[in-house]
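Final report, Chapter 2: Outcomes

The project's central promise was a pipeline that accepts a single protein chain and returns its three-dimensional structure in a standardized token representation, suitable for archiving and comparison. That pipeline is now operational. To close this chapter, we reproduce one record exactly as it appears in the project archive, with the input sequence first and the structure output second.
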Amino acid sequence: MTAHAPDRVDCTLPSHPKYLPLLRSLVGEGSALAGFDKDLTTRLLLAVTEAVTNVIRHVYGGATDRRVDLAMRADDGELRIDLVDYGTFIDPKHIASRPLDDVRPGGIGVHLIKTTMDRVEYRKNEHGGTTLIMEKHAPAPTAPSEAAHPIEEPR
């Protein structure tokens, strides 16, 4: 068996919400290349959309003319997405969702990202902004249930 290089895409998008469908298409294709199913792809799309929306809203203050870089690497059973902003670095200790029992619209994007992804890391980048690293690995195969294959009692 020969090893293959992972698929990689690098792109720069303006910080305008009208480009979110393009971002979602890229991530959806990356998820397919990683071999993820439809349910996991849907959750990944939501998490990455939340991450970019947070950059637009909180880092750029809604400015639609700023830059967001995406680097995506897909391989069998794993997907890594790096989002780079050019704002001011925010200490990860200050990045949190509101309490989940505070029921109202908005404010749970960070929670969604952290519960969807296997790795979430915020790093200060060379531009003074933040690089958000998100990784997802294919779920481990589940063992067949005993109900599907009952164990027979010895006679």
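Archive annotation: The CA atoms of residues 64 and 105 lie 23 Å apart.
This record, like all others produced under the grant, will remain available to the consortium after the project formally closes.
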